Predict the 3D structure of the following.
Amino acid sequence: MNTVWAQGQALAETFESLNPATGEPIGTFPVNSRADVDAAVARAREAAAWWGGLGWKERQRRLLAWKSHIIRYIGRLAELVHIETGKPLADAKLEIFLAVVHIDWAARHARKILEPRRVRSGLVAVNQASWREYAPLGVVGVIGPWNYPVFTPIGSISYALAAGNAVVFKPSEFTPAVGGWLVSAFADIVPEHPVLQLVTGLGPTGEALARSTVDKIAFTGSSATARKVMAACADNLTPLIAECGGKDAFLVAADADLDAAADAAAWGAASNAGQTCIGVERVYVVQDVYHSFLEKLSERMSQLRAGDDREAHYGPMTMTSQVDIVEDHIADALARGGRAVLGGMQSVRRPYVDPVILTDVPETSMAVQDETFGPILTVTKVADLEEGIALANASRYALGSAVFSGSKKTAMAAARQMRAGMTAINSVIGFASVPALPFGGAGDSGFGRIHGPDGLREFTMAKAITRQRMRPLMNMTTFNRTDKDVSKLLALGTLIHGRRYRR
Ligand code: NAD
């Protein structure tokens, strides 16, 4: 962080965003203070009233215009993602494309899912007409991570906007230029009011947003930070969605297509240098196919190369501190009797980490227990799929997972037993590309859902309205009611609900 001084007075603090491959500065951004954040939230409050009052059609029109702007200028945005995170350009473009699919879905489905709907009142309230509505919350604060600086925050921002809210967005301090691009593109399309605003800074700026008067926080980041955000949100009883880390398991059944499974596990583990919340970190393979699978996986992963050039399969680690964690996990696994069948300690050559496959790693070790967030995976032999499921589920994380099996029935049964918010069968991260599906986890992976109908409803207040159409036959909400009225109602209740059910 730098401080800008004038006549001995600190005017403002700034920070630099750096290219992780070269260390070169990309841009200088303000460290927004608590007062800056509060001012942005106050402006957003007015913008929310306008945006909320625009109506579904007008909001949809503007969101779709934003979407087409992003895809038309995908090259420019991808370049920013590439230089701020280090990920290959093609990966950056794919990430942006996936985000666009979500903006499109949220814009086109918000009305159908959230518009006021008449519901049946039931026999007891037959004199009432009833409606269920989903009203916008007002102002949503979105705090983003750096690993997917477009796809991840868009998963909250686009759904919150489509539901009729204004948004104040604090991108990660590693990717402020990407955040700024998204916000200014939106402002070009919606110039009337600051419906989507940017605040930049480090942890304290995020904390200021969580302590402000926003109506909800959508946080994506580590479980450790989520705990701090939750504590900050407690001040105002601000509700929170927490999309946190993962330790995703990947099951290989005896009847799996091993080539497809090895290819998917390699990509799931090493793409984006393993810095993916739903990346593959633990593989459990049924013993009959363990050796064949391991051979195919090692062959596939040995061909991968980290680098900054166009041919590299993946880029550098974005945060240098994450390299220390990766190193610790490899060292701990080896010290506890694990074997590196591909790579090892020498695979860490900052800022790059080459692929590492670890076997015979005790389940109690760091590489199995904690999020590694690097191109490293453990491969463990299990007696059968049941043992694989049991080990996969014995984690404090519960985000994504994958099952490979040639039998639809086996795979579906295993998927349902996985303690994970999302499971892909015979692919990795298939669920992230289906906008109609909810995205999120449990345990240390957080709570709440983005994407799909659940993701839209997260950014609303469910509201009930009844209108009395006629006077009730028996009015229970008056001091004029008699004991006889109550007895009559209970007699009716017994008639309706008192029938014996056979067990
Ligand atoms: P992080 O927790 O370090 O930071 C996330 C954001 O929180 C940043 O914008 C940061 O400035 C802000 N922040 C830091 N301290 C804060 C505080 N006290 N109060 C409020 N905000 C604060 O995470 P990261 O390193 O940016 O991202 C990597 C993590 O994110 C990994 O654990 C990864 O698994 C997770 N992630 C999860 C998902 C998901 O959808 N579940 C998606 C992407 C990343």
